[in-house]
Amino acid sequence: MSFQKRKGILALALALLPLFALSSCGGGGGLAGGGTGGTGVGPVTGFGSVIVNGVKYVDTGIDNTNFFDDHGRNKSGLVSGMMVVISGTIAGANGTADNITVLRHVDGPMDDNGVDLATGRLKVMGQDVVADASTVFDNVVTSLSDLRTLQGANVKHPELEVHGSADNNGVIHATFVHKWADDNVVGRGVQVRGTVAGPQTATTFAIGRKTVNFSSVPGGLPAGFAVGKFVEVKGTMNPVDNVLSATTVKLDDATGAQPSGSRMEVEGYIVPVITAGVSFGLLGPNGVQTVTWTTGTTTFTGGTGADIGAGIKVEVEGTRKAGGALAATRIAFRRASNVQIKSTATSVTASSLTVFGKTVTVNSLTQYKDSGSLNLKTFGQADIAVNDPLQISAFLDNTTNPASIVATRVERVGAIGTTSHILQGPVDSFVPGGPDLFILGIDVLGAAVPAAFLNTDETTLTQTQFFQVLEDNRVAGKTTVVKARGTSSNPMSASELQIEPTLDN
Questions:
Q1: Predicted local confidence at residue 282, as pLDDT
Q2: Dmax of the chain from CA atoms?
Q3: In the chain, which end has fewer C-beta atoms inside a 10 angstrom radius, N or C?
Q4: Cα separations (Å) of 354 from 39, 246, 360, 402, 442?
């Protein structure tokens, strides 16, 4: 089936969605089997069906007529970390998918000087993108370092597809990065989602630093278009002036035209608080919507109502109200993954893993991937065994005492070399000048002085310079994140120490 034909089917499906939901749900009531019409928006975290925001959607009814992706993927092409919209029914932690749409945030060539290792950032199509330990890199590239090497001295501009959510400053926090080509492809279709920025001229506007020329858009700009609106733009790059020549400009409706009573589970950033203790704007990968919450009724995970503020990442579960606002029944705070552990599992339960002697908690939002010898598509917590080599991305939940380690991503990997185990996290304490340095309670320099000290940009430091950076950050009240590579012992014998960018959300 052609892409244009599938686009037409999608438009028809979206137009009929309110009627379907009303006729099936009795205006938002329950369906047979206890389900309610609902939508899930977020990254794919697992399979065996499709798991998004902790809901396991049965996808047996999904085929090429109700799976939508501009690059022609089908259901089997879904990968953990990809951002999707699933419409169907939801009953607690289970659901049934009627439609699945892949949501790319930006798709196009990398900018000049496109990688900044010191800040963990990437620039694509004039958009700022940040990657953390849980970002999934796909198709040969495994990290920002690989992309920097590929670009060289701005000789190449790899074509990238980036999934994620933008924060209140317009920075896209990547959940998935796929490389389509090693260099830009002239005439290739590109796309960017984002908030319209000024100034606007008779034929142009901006999203981030990217100028969009809409003079060739049939019918011009859509009704309601204005600075501050969230839009999706498709077109091609003009090689002469690097302007995006738009063929379509569409306003995104984050409510999905849901009728009142429908369920929605969505991940995004608060932008901003509208009324303290009552409501906020939530910017997800498909636009902005209003979320209301009530003390004593809305439950919180990983924080409290006092933690709600602009720029905070949350996952919201709720019910659509008349007028379009989402009444939150649950709000889960999502923290940046500054913790990474790569080692073998010594204990496994239904809700935790023990790796490097540290207990790591998993939950319904933890993402799973199997890159080991079995390469299971339906890999999850139940498939992990003692002695499995794992790479875990996590954050520290400071709402508990002591802070608990919560996994955002668990990947089973191949065999780990004796000196290739990794322990990364905020520095607990250190002796000025060395050698002792503690991460997650483990002295990573207790057994030997490493052969290499590296800064965030991978340049080499002396031991004195390395510890001076730690000391300067301590005096300034800044957190320092360090990655130690070496043995799995405690104390650890680190062969390499590298300062990593510290991400706040």
A1: 97
A2: 70
A3: N
A4: 34, 51, 6, 16, 14
C-alpha 222: how far from chain center: 29
pTM greater than 0.85? yes
Q: Which two tokens stand for residue 295?
A: 């003390």
Nearest to 265 by CA among 50, 487, 423, 429: 50
- Nearest-CA neighbor of 195 among 241, 234, 233? 233
SS3 468: helix
pLDDT in tens, 176-201: 999 999 999 999 999 999 999 977 89
> Is the separation of the CB atoms in 192 and 108 below 8 Å?
yes
Q: Which domains does the chain have, with CATH numbers?
A: 3-102 (no CATH), 106-251 (2.40.50.140), 263-333 (2.40.50.140), 339-500 (no CATH)
Tell me which residue of 407, 389, 386 sits closest to 397, measured CA to CA.
Answer: 407
SS3 at position 193 = strand
Cα 255 to Cα 169, 411, 429, 453: the distances in Å are 22, 33, 46, 49
